[in-house]
Amino acid sequence: MTQTMRWFGPNDPVQLRAIRQAGATEVVTALHEVPNGAVWERDAIAARKAMVRAAGLDWRVVESLPVDEGIKTRSPEWDRLIAQYCQSLTNLAACGIDVVTYNFMPLLDWTRTDLGWELPDGARALRFELVALAAYDLFILQRPGAAESYDAATCAAAEQRYATMDEAARRELERTIIAGLPGSEEGFTSPAFLRAIETYADIDAATLRDHHVAFLAAVCPTADALGIRLVVHPDDPPFPIFGLPRVVSTEADIANLFARVPNRSNGLCLCTGSLGVRADNDLPGMVDRLGDRIGFLHLRSVQREPDGAFHEAEHLGGDAAMAAIVAAVHRLSVREHRSIPMRPDHGHQMLDDLARITNPGYSLLGRMRGLAELRGLERGLAYAAG
Ligand code: DNO
Ligand code: MN
């Protein structure tokens, strides 16, 4: 595997030299300052790449080139947005980028309800609780029809939870869920979020799948010609939230996407943390079966909890069978003679980072620990495999 770390650009509190000292050889990054949908200009990409290279690292994987809402909803701007997406891909390829990550989640990117959940050892993890999400949805957002999205037990628990929260806790929960986590590119206030949800009133899962296929059918020929792998990041969490469809949550979803758009460039960013929230996703099996489509790996583990909750576990702990996953990746790399880029997706906030301002999930020390563990695991497995 090629060891990378995500870097949010010149404003990231984690500096390039720290990423290099953590042992990564590349960063994955994006031009976060460019608004969604606009073209990434070649000069700007080249300048960012030069900055990374001056620090002794490389940049070959983009995370993410965002897919504008106008593409997901097939708005009248669709043609222009597709042309701009293709232009960005062309400019990226000209600068030596060969993997481009995106997602197809409506409105929200990854979603959590607690950004500082204390673990027994004092480190802090990101956590998702369905009950907290429902408390926000039902009683703070007050989305029309929200009650239909939850079973009776969840509604009752959400009502109780809401009653125990003071105003500050309610505002904090609202911000955590919709203000936009690092890399999300978009954030909302509750009134704006309600209006945005309305734009999906006529878009069910089947329609969103069709829109996803239309997007890929339009951009993959360009990506094929450029030698770029366009890799979709799965839904996080991998089920519908706020009544909005999510269509990249299971192996069947992903296999279906490859069947409908067989172009070589149509690929996957296999995120074990996102997919691993569902017990029915067989992660090592997915590496085996989707292998040649995997262009990028996010390695982390979640611990599933009762009542639809989960938290981010240690990289080698939790529910993901990480040794079996990395062994499958090793077999794939040998079979295809390629080194697949990976990153330790998130990490715990720990040690000196507990006293620092950090991007939730993206503090240095927890990710450095994760990367070190994953590197050692791969080295050991490769040795054992001869
Ligand atoms: C979260 C990330 C996601 C990912 C996007 C890809 O930590 O894994 O934000 O970058 O979904 O488009
Ligand atoms: Mn991920």
From TrEMBL:
Its EC number is 4.2.1.8. It catalyses: D-mannonate = 2-dehydro-3-deoxy-D-gluconate + H2O. It is an enzyme of class 4 (lyase). Its cofactor is Fe(2+); Mn(2+). InterPro entries: Man_deHydtase, Xyl_isomerase-like_sf. Pfam families: UxuA (PF03786). Pathway: Carbohydrate metabolism; pentose and glucuronate interconversion. Keywords: Iron, Lyase, Manganese. It comes from the Bacteria. HAMAP family: UxuA. Catalyzes the dehydration of D-mannonate. PANTHER family: MANNONATE DEHYDRATASE. Belongs to the mannonate dehydratase family. This is Mannonate dehydratase. The lineage of its organism: Bacteria, Pseudomonadati, Pseudomonadota, Alphaproteobacteria, Sphingomonadales. The gene is uxuA.
